[in-house]
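[#protein-structures] MJ: dropping Putative hemin transport system permease protein HrtB here for a structure pass
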Amino acid sequence: MYLALKEIRHEKLRYGLIISMVVLIAYLIFILTSLAFGLAGENTQAINSWDAKSIVLNKDSNISLTQSTITNDQAKDAKLSSKEAVIGSTPVVAKHKGKEKISASFIGARKSQFIIKDLKLTSGHKARNNHQIVVDEKFKTDGYKLGDKVTLNSFKDKYQIVGFTKNAKLNVAPVAYGTMATWKYLRGIPNAPVSGSAIVSKNAKYNAHDSHLKTYSMNKFISKLPGYSAENTTFGFMIGFLMIISLVIIAVFLYILTMQALPTYAVLRAQGIPARALVSTITSQSLILMASGVVIGALLAALTGSLLPVGVPMAFNIPVLTWISIGLMIMGVIGAAIPAQKIATVDPVSVIGG
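AK: finished. structure tokens for Putative hemin transport system permease protein HrtB:
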């Protein structure tokens, strides 16, 4: 460690450039990871708030909430308990004169079931009739306030915003909670014998006992949300490639520096300093460079997160970012293996003589 620090102090510019490269890579990885978790969260915030373990959909709905319908008879035969709730879902566009239109996901639910019972509000109260809704705070960010009356889609009926709730987004769109009767009206089936779109349950092994319905785990349902898996896979590959790039960069830089200093290492070997000590120096240098770059990159990412607008979906998952940091450190050690092997096998006579 002493020799490693001594050499880094002596060659400040060279090692400073390496640290700068590591900082940029670590910063980019942290930002991309946080964006990935932020986008994933905006797809599933509402689902996570329900704390449900399974969901029952029409088996012909292609695991799509908006394409599924459950009849009254099917819901009755499902023998719902306090751990189950029927919901209806449909996309809507909320409009209010003088304010920006908002594409949202309307969720109809019964106030006697846990979806509405467990709904936590940041202000206002829950919907008490068919012309009241509770909306995600995205509406407040866009200038909407309690008491505003909005129209949904092309219907002339007005719905009053009576409450705001936090972290209620489904497939990126903010959620508007209302009654089941309102959902049926918006779907254009006010008198149809339809109970809802799905049954969500806190029981992972819940069975609706109907051949036309199928139970899915919540993880399976989430993975089928439009764009969800594609987004996560894309970010995963980007982060993986950046990890590999960091490995190549640290290996190339250390190898070049080692080859330039090879005569010095040969002299040290000739003086009786064991190869193990010199290899330890290279490994220590790599760890110091990676640790410095990761720490600075993390600080820059945190600063960026604090300066970005509220609308940018960014979530810092500390455990995951910690493992990524450890991964970068391991990549640094692996990158130091090539120059370390060169030092371990150097022949002092041939190097000094040459």
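MJ: nice. Residues 12-50 form the longest helix (39 residues).
AK: one more thing. The radius of gyration is 29 Å.
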